Amino acid sequence: KMSEAGEGCGSRCPSVLNESCASALPCWNGTAALRPPLLVDAWLVPLFFALLMAVGLAGNSLVIHVISKHKKMRTATNFYIANLATTDIIFLVCCVPFTAALYPLPSWVFGEFMCKFVSYIQQVSAQATCVTLMALGVDRWYVTVFPLSSLRRRTARTAATVSLGIWIGSFLVSVPVPVYSSITEGEWYGPQVYCTESFPSNRTQHRSCSPDFMQEMQELRSPPLLSPLTPSPLPQLQFLAERSEATRTKISRMVAVMVLLFTVCWGPIQFYILVQAFSPQFQHSYSTYKLKIWAHCMSYANSCVNPIVYAFMGASFRKAFKRAFPCVFKQRVAVAPAPRGNANAEMHFVSSGS
Question: Which residue numbers delimit the G-protein coupled receptors family 1 profile domain (predicted)?
Fold first, then answer.
């Protein structure tokens, strides 16, 4: 039998191989001479995860370094971006290594405490990422609709307070996860132990799955995230409140791209979890197993794409990177022409006053 509790409903890092008969291969009832087959994903997926971890840790650490080192970069928008980078780093450290270990290993070998702890931290980072994206969208909406008042109220201290509140709320909301996470026994080429979420009933499992998924999708579809893309009814006030129309457009476009990438990366695995949890006709096979692997790789890739977005769409990020590492860009900086006019005014990573 497949262990459906191991799917980690709503978790940012649902179990991949913590299932009995996770593929179309036959299940054996504990003959000691038989060993689990070594599939290609046993080494290919961990290698891919290692690459994502290296790129993600380097990129997100660089984002935090640049924002913390340069005072002009400590704006409201950049605080939310630093918060996103923090959630990605925590996710890469607390989720990726343990999930990667499930591919070559037949069972969970890290003990019950780590099972609860890892599941909890994974859910916390997922919740913090979703709410931070929402806060970033609300921030852009506020700048667009209330440009003058935003100059007074949108401060770095306010953004830092909101970010702190996001973390506190994420830790509190995720408390049920370690309660339902536990070590369970199963069979796959012999007796194995798995880290799964064990619910007292299917109804409880469905309640655990649906609110979390619907909350994430509602946050992603909320009007504040789309509002920066729509024109404000007060263009003259916008001109006074923002440094330039070009700067405002670049920031809003970058936020939209971040939200779109999050949806594209996390949509497949969330859809897979929902179909598996709510569809009685769902059939486990090696084809669905490979589909699940692809969905996991997509979701994990989201933790390293944001710094790439900043590098391509944030002109000030590139400038700050050059200032932080002048030896790398010494020749290029020396011949770089000075910017003209106000259209390319410093965005302080993505923006100065916004």
Answer: 59-310
How far from 302 is each of 32, 53, 257, 259, 261, CA to CA, in Å? 40, 11, 12, 10, 7
Q: How far is CA 220 from CA 77, 132, 217, 223, in A?
A: 18, 11, 5, 9
187 near 30, Cβ under 8 Å? yes
φ/ψ of residue 196, rounded to 5: -135, 170
Torsions phi, psi of 186, nearest 5? Answer: -155, 180
- Whether 126 contacts 192, CB under 8 Å: no
DSSP letter for 182, please. E
Q: Tell me if 232 sits within 8 A of 144, measured CB to CB.
A: yes
**CA pair distance 163, 167, nearest whole angstrom:** 6
The CB density around residue 22, as the number of other CB atoms within 10 Å, is 24
Tens of pLDDT, residue by residue over 263-303, are 899 899 889 888 887 877 878 777 888 888 898 889 899 98
CB of 308 closer than 8 Å to CB of 338: no
**Distance of alpha carbon 335 from its chain centroid, rounded?**
38
Give all domains of the chain, ordered by start, each with its CATH number.
40-220+241-322 (1.20.1070.10)
CB 301 within 8 A of CB 50: no
Please measure the distance between the N-terminal and C-terminal CA atoms of the chain and give it in whole angstroms. Answer: 54
Comparing 46 with 202, the larger pLDDT belongs to: 46
Tokens of 343: 């259209």
Q: Are strands 191-197 and 181-187 parallel, antiparallel or unpaired?
A: antiparallel
Which tokens in the block code for residue 221?
């579809």
* Contact (Cβ atoms closer than 8 angstroms) between residue 143 and residue 158: no
